[in-house]
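Progress narrative, work stream C.
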Amino acid sequence: MNPGSLMIIAGEASADAHGAGVVRALRRRQADLVCFGVGGPALRDAGVEILVDAASLAVVGITEVAVKARALIDALGRVRRALARRRPALLVLIDLPDFNLMVAATARRLGIPVLYYISPQIWAWRPGRIRKIARRVDHMAVILPFEEVLYRRHGVPVTFVGHPLMDAAPPLSTEPPGPPRVGLLPGSRDREIERHLPEMLAAAKAVARQRPDVRFTVSVAPGVDPAFVHRLIGEADAGGSLEMVVGGVRGILAHSTLVVAASGTVTLEAAVAGTPTVIVYKVSPLSYRLGRALIRVPFIGLANLIAEAPVVPELIQDEVTGETIAAHVLSLLDDPARRRAMRDALARVRLRLGPPGAGQRVATIAWRMLTARSLSS
């Protein structure tokens, strides 16, 4: 049986990688499956014909959307024309909610089934989007357990496929031997690093005055210029007990007594590793005021949202100071029993993320939708 072709849209590096896993799993079922769409190097390496490079869609914040509006409109037009001309048997959307939901509307008008992998954060803000999703999407493949409950409540076909982080999940870490080590994870974009790292470094100096045995590691995320981070460290005069590590955070998580992490996916990576964490989150005053008006969840950390409890402390906006961060770090360093309890709670969060194989499960849903389309045509 030839199920026809598939269009896939993945707008960021992580979505590109997740999409490539789905395509490879589908091609193990149908080696000559034709795939085309929007993506980056991972999807291209998986054999997808790239109509629009995902880099042209990558925007952060309102001002960047305005700057890139022409490129976004052009990309949307090209995608819509390809849908109408090539009529794929299935459209797979990954994250990128505003763009993808507009594409989904076109697919609905053309009668093309839509599978959406990695839900928009409707549980955090703009919850009204769920009605738009219900009208435009045939099936949601979600990666957080509470999302499945939310979609079922609104009558949207949904499957919890597990979190793709579990595909490369390390063994649960134990307390590392030797002197205490604190990881500082300030973020993956220059602006958030500028907001978080100076306060983290001030906290490191304050902690070192009371605990000179503590060592600190600063994570430099992929794509961040190490010279930029090095300059911030130099300006803070952080001292000799601090080192930089460029690249992934897995080693830092495994060898840290605890970490101070900017809110984001890295805090879930810390939860998966079982590393005690203090979450920090600081944005511009305007963004914070807007966020407070729009966000409807009790926590910002994914581990706390999944646990439905304050498993790890969260410091938000004006609380993100060297003094406050240092107080939380010292409290954890001085209380081994609390760290053990936090590790146990994070292990339970990890269990809720499901087993490895999220991409395989998405591919199974996609194959079912593809073959159903083939049988009905």
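Work stream C, second folded protein:
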Amino acid sequence: MDATPVDRLADDAPATNALVRGRRLLGDFELLHCTDGTYRLDGGAMFGVVPKTLWSRRIAADENNTILLGLNTTVVRTGRHVVLIETGIGNKQPAKLRAIHGNQELLPASLAAAGVRAEEVTHVLNTHLHFDHCGWNTNLLPDGRSVPTFPNARYFAAAGEVAHGRLQLERDAVSYLAANYDPLIASGQLTLLDVDGLGGFTPGDSRLRVPEGRNASPIQTEAEIVPGITVERFPGHTASMLGVHIRSGGERACYIGDLVPTHHHLDATWVMGYDLDPLRSIVERKRFLDWAVREDILVLFTHDHEMPAARVRWNDQGKPVVA
């Protein structure tokens, strides 16, 4: 079976709305690049202190200074498991925000087009719990209830993300929508990750603010989710953000979340205004890029609609570029 290149679409697939952004083999695993569509964010916020005269050479802004971004979900078929990494914005945004972002709520249609049924998904991983990464964790019903979208799946997110979201800080309260994860706590489907126990979280931890009468989510300190898929902390964008490592048949990929949101962000210092700790993001990005180039890692980009995956090399000037 030949793998379809993930950085090109079929000739008859419109670049703006193709439901399946690509598929390929990674060792014995199949990777499917699905999408919740596109959305628009402020270009200046996406590139932080980088002047527009520089970043606009790579990606065009509209009259409102917004740029087009993707909402990529990677589906990993291991042969025993069907694992989803990230779930886009979902269908819980109010009309005002949908108008601002222009998002399309396409993930269910994208999964169907890729031949993935909601009932067969066994695991769902969130790198962090910002609204644009975990929206389809749950589905908003007409009666106002939010219920798990994938009824048979175990969900995984960092315990530190839930704890931070509970604080509802002025800096980023808008990014954390409890309806994206509280129904999973109620259903018993959410496992909270505290890799190597560094956060010291326990079930029922006061930082998690488990509602009285509700069962606490289990805490997992091991990095392995299923054989061949593990997580690793890459703090900076948030304090507890995770990268997802995929290994099979001697090949490796990494879904790196918002550490490197698109291939336009490969420069170590081109971090986002959204990053809570931009200096730590630079340190972590350098660490990640050195490893990704040295080990020939397939990098999976969370917000790159046109290039959901690529390998990275150093160019003649020693800068990271897509291969």
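Confidence is low (pLDDT under 50) at residues 1-16. No further action is required on this item.
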